[in-house]
C-alpha cells in the first residue's frame, strides 16, 4: 500500500473483513483445530490479519505524511506497538500461559530491526547510492536510550538477588516499568519538541514538505486506523490459538512464537523503511527501525508487566547466555555503524550476518 494517491480498496476492505470474521467466529464459536476446516480457518485468519496490519500501517503513513516528521514516524511506531502489545498480552495470558513470550518477542524485534532491517536498508541503499548519510546526533540518542532499556529489561533480571533470575520481583518490576516509561517519555519529548531537527534529513535547514491530503481524507484515515487496530486486538485471541497449535505440531522451539509475532507486526513497517532507503532517505529508515525497537521496550514491557501483575502471572524477562552475547554484539556493531553519519554496503552486510546467526540459533540453539 502507498500513502500517495487515492485510497486503495484493501485499506478499508481488510479492516471490514477482520471485524466481520471476528463477529462470525464469535457467534459460531469457531476455533482452530488440526483439521481441514481448521487449517482453512487459520489461513483465512492469517490472510485477513496480515492485510489488516498492512491497512493500519497504510493509514498511519497517510496521517504521518500530513503531520510531517518526526511526528509522522511516531504515529507509525505507536500504531505498530499497540498491535504488538495486544498480540503479546493475548498469547501470554491465554489458556496456555507463555511467561517468556514478551521477552522472546522484544528480543526478536530488537534483532530483526537492529540487524535484519537496518542491515537490509543500508545494503540496498549502498548498492544504489554507494553511500548514504543521516543525522549522527539523532542516531546516538536512539542508541543511548535503547542500550539502557534493553539492558535493564533483558539482561539485568538474570543478576538480581531479591528474586531468582530470570525474573524480577514485584517491586523490581514496578520500578523498571516506571523508569522505562519515564525514559521513553523524555525521549519522545526530545524527538518531537526539544531536538526534533536531530531526526530530520538535513536537520534544522530541511525544507518542510506540505501534503495535499484533504481534511476529509485525513479524518477517514484516522477512523480506519482506529478500526484496524481494534480489529487486530479482537482477532489476537484467535491468532494465539493458531500459534500454540502450529508451534506444537512442527516441534518448533518456544522462541519461535516470539519471532512469529515480531515478523507479523514489523512486516508493514519494514516495507516502509526499505522503500525509504531505496528513495535515498536513510534517515526515515533509521527513525522507523530504531524507533520500533525503543517503542517495543519502552511501551510493551510496562504494559505486559502491568497486565501480569494485575492477573498475578509470571513474567520471564532475562535472556540466556547466547541471547545476551547476540544483544551485546548488536550494541557494539550499532555504535560503529551509526558513529560516522555515513554508511556503505559492508555495514549492511555485517548486520545481516548477525541477523542470520540469530535466526539460525533460534532453531539450532
UniProtKB/TrEMBL annotation:
<keyword id="KW-1133">Transmembrane helix</keyword>
<protein>
    <submittedName>
        <fullName>Ionic transporter y4hA</fullName>
    </submittedName>
</protein>
<dbReference type="Pfam" id="PF01699">
    <property type="entry name" value="Na_Ca_ex"/>
</dbReference>
<keyword id="KW-0812">Transmembrane</keyword>
<feature type="transmembrane region" description="Helical">
    <location>
        <begin position="317"/>
        <end position="338"/>
    </location>
</feature>
<feature type="domain" description="Sodium/calcium exchanger membrane region">
    <location>
        <begin position="40"/>
        <end position="192"/>
    </location>
</feature>
<keyword id="KW-0472">Membrane</keyword>
<dbReference type="InterPro" id="IPR052946">
    <property type="entry name" value="Alkaline_pH_Ca-Antiporter"/>
</dbReference>
<feature type="transmembrane region" description="Helical">
    <location>
        <begin position="167"/>
        <end position="189"/>
    </location>
</feature>
<feature type="transmembrane region" description="Helical">
    <location>
        <begin position="71"/>
        <end position="94"/>
    </location>
</feature>
<dbReference type="GO" id="GO:0015386">
    <property type="term" value="F:potassium:proton antiporter activity"/>
</dbReference>
<feature type="transmembrane region" description="Helical">
    <location>
        <begin position="106"/>
        <end position="127"/>
    </location>
</feature>
<feature type="transmembrane region" description="Helical">
    <location>
        <begin position="139"/>
        <end position="161"/>
    </location>
</feature>
<dbReference type="GO" id="GO:0015385">
    <property type="term" value="F:sodium:proton antiporter activity"/>
</dbReference>
<dbReference type="InterPro" id="IPR004837">
    <property type="entry name" value="NaCa_Exmemb"/>
</dbReference>
<feature type="domain" description="Sodium/calcium exchanger membrane region">
    <location>
        <begin position="221"/>
        <end position="363"/>
    </location>
</feature>
<feature type="transmembrane region" description="Helical">
    <location>
        <begin position="217"/>
        <end position="236"/>
    </location>
</feature>
<feature type="transmembrane region" description="Helical">
    <location>
        <begin position="37"/>
        <end position="59"/>
    </location>
</feature>
<feature type="transmembrane region" description="Helical">
    <location>
        <begin position="288"/>
        <end position="311"/>
    </location>
</feature>
<dbReference type="GO" id="GO:0005886">
    <property type="term" value="C:plasma membrane"/>
</dbReference>
<feature type="transmembrane region" description="Helical">
    <location>
        <begin position="256"/>
        <end position="276"/>
    </location>
</feature>
<feature type="transmembrane region" description="Helical">
    <location>
        <begin position="345"/>
        <end position="364"/>
    </location>
</feature>
Amino acid at each position: 500500500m502507498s500513502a500517495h494517491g487515492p485510497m486503495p480498496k484493501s485499506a478499508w476492505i481488510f479492516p471490514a473483513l477482520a471485524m466481520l470474521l471476528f463477529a462470525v467466529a464469535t457467534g459460531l464459536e469457531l476455533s482452530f483445530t488440526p483439521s481441514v476446516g481448521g487449517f482453512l480457518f487459520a489461513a483465512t485468519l492469517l490472510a485477513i490479519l496480515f492485510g489488516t496490519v498492512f491497512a493500519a500501517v497504510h493509514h498511519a503513513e497517510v496521517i504521518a505524511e500530513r503531520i510531517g516528521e518526526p511526528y509522522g514516524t511516531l504515529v507509525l511506531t505507536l500504531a505498530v506497538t499497540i498491535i504488538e502489545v495486544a498480540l503479546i498480552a493475548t498469547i501470554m495470558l491465554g489458556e496456555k500461559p507463555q511467561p517468556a513470550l514478551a521477552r522472546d518477542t522484544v528480543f526478536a524485534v530488537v534483532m530483526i530491526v537492529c540487524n535484519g532491517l537496518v542491515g537490509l536498508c543500508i545494503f540496498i541503499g549502498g548498492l544504489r547510492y554507494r553511500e548514504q548519510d543521516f543525522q549522527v546526533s539523532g542516531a546516538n540518542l536512539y542508541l543511548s536510550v535503547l542500550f539502557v532499556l534493553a539492558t535493564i529489561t533483558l539482561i539485568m533480571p538474570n543478576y538480581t538477588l531479591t528474586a531468582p533470575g530470570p525474573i524480577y520481583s514485584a517491586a523490581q518490576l514496578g520500578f523498571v516499568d516506571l523508569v522505562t516509561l519515564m525514559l521513553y517519555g523524555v525521549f519522545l519529548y526530545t524527538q518531537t519538541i526539544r531536538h526534533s531537527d536531530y531526526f530530520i534529513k538535513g536537520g534544522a535547514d530541511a525544507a518542510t514538505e506540505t501534503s495535499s491530503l484533504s481534511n476529509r481524507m485525513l479524518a477517514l484515515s484516522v477512523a480506519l486506523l482506529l478500526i484496524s487496530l481494534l480489529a487486530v486486538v479482537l482477532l489476537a485471541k484467535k491468532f494465539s490459538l493458531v500459534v500454540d497449535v502450529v508451534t506444537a505440531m512442527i516441534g518448533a522451539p518456544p522462541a519461535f512464537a516470539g519471532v512469529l509475532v515480531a515478523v507479523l507486526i514489523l512486516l508493514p513497517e519494514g516495507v516502509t523503511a526499505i522503500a525509504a532507503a531505496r528513495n535515498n532517505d536513510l534517515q526515515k529508515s533509521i527513525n522507523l527501525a530504531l524507533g520500533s525497537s525503543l517503542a517495543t521496550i519502552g511501551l510493551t514491557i510496562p504494559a505486559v508487566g502491568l497486565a501480569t501483575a494485575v492477573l498475578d502471572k509470571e513474567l520471564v524477562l532475562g535472556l540466556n547466555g547466547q541471547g545476551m552475547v547476540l544483544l551485546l554484539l548488536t550494541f557494539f556493531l550499532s555504535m560503529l555503524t551509526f558513529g560516522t553519519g555515513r554508511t556503505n554496503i559492508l555495514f549492511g552486510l555485517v548486520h545481516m550476518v548477525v541477523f542470520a546467526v540469530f535466526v539460525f540459533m533460534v532453531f539450532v540453539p
